[in-house]
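Hello Y.,

Per our agreement to keep a running log of every chain we model this quarter, I'm adding this entry. I've kept the format consistent with earlier entries: sequence first, then predicted structure.
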Amino acid sequence: MVSSVSELVQLWERILSRIRDRLKDQRIFDSFFADSYIHRIDGDSMLVVASTELAANLLTSRYISMISEVVSEVTQSNFKITFVQKSDIPSTKIEKVQEKPTFFANSFINPKFTFDNFVVGASNLEAKQAALMIASNPGTMFNPLFLYSASGLGKTHLLHAMGNYIKEHLPASKVLYITTDDFVDEFIKYVHGDKDSESLKDFFKGIDFLLVDDIQFLADKPKTEEMFFHIFNALVNINKQIVLTSDRHPTELKGLESRLVSRFSSGLAINIAKPDLETRKDILLSKIEANGLEVERFDEEVITFFAERFGDNIRELEGALNRLLFYIINIKKTDYVSLPIALESVQSLVSVNDTKSKLDAVRIINVVGDYYNITPAQITGRMRKAEVALARHIAMYLTRNLLDLPFKQIGQVFGGKDHSTVINACDKVEEQLKTSPDLAQAIVQLEKQLKV
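Predicted structure for the entry above:
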């Protein structure tokens, strides 16, 4: 049917055009469909390459029927469609052999980190503003810019965002992003004579915008410090911009020469604090959208729980969210992510105490739901039907009696209910147990199922 690459491209463009019209969701289309293409057609089999493994899984699990229908309409044939990621297809391109830089050959600016997708809150607003101002006017003020914070709060994101901004707005400028470990490794190779074709100092003279991550690791390396000192001075003297990050303020860096500390302090030093709860929630919502998912699918209590429980740093927060996304896409597919499902997904990430409390509470919710033929989402939700309310009260009562959790914590597990609601539920069950043999029998049976 199709014999050339251009024909395959044209065919898939027609297919994608119809898919876009049917999908009516530009974000989903751009995230998962737009970069796909037909790799080959063999008989009645069509192999389509998606941009990522996540995209391939999602297209296969959620959209295959719609895609097959559109393909059939366009081609008048019934193809068996298979989605794979790009890395599964061997490259057939003949690339030009390019000479690698003498130093830092593996350095790169990550295009995923930009100012646009940096979530701003009170904790990092000043740092973001300073980074953008300096990227807009490199070498003219505040040199160096020194960003410091605990690990995982966005320093590296801002470094790459600055690099991407420079590449877009000042494409003739040469930007270099390195870690301090990279610098130490290159210096050792240079000293040992492995890099004798060019002086390390001369190499840095060609850099217009130097981004160095984790400068605290330069401590207690006097020879390396001396080389960095000379490079630093040379760049600043010719108005080349330097941006450094560290886990502490320059004056608190131990093991560094005082002349380096003095120079690090001479520009602008800005701290990035731990993000507040609302900022962490905004970060989660941003990451969900970036993965092509609708935030409406996630219960607000899920967002709040993750922001509270995994809020020490952004990397931990992203790791927990990735675990949840993997769980609901591959393990327990669902259109709506409730708190019990979210808790199941991260049970290996929470601490021992949290596991005992929250995850046992989830098991109680599931057992009570099965007993009364009610879903866990109904139990933790706000439905007021008599049978649902009874099951909810019993689940709260069992959670309180069997786990001895605080009323406030029980309320959080049950969809963010107020502690007074939990107290009222437990009181009602206790009163009904005095006059209802059926309820007493149900409690006994539920405790047996829970193996109490």
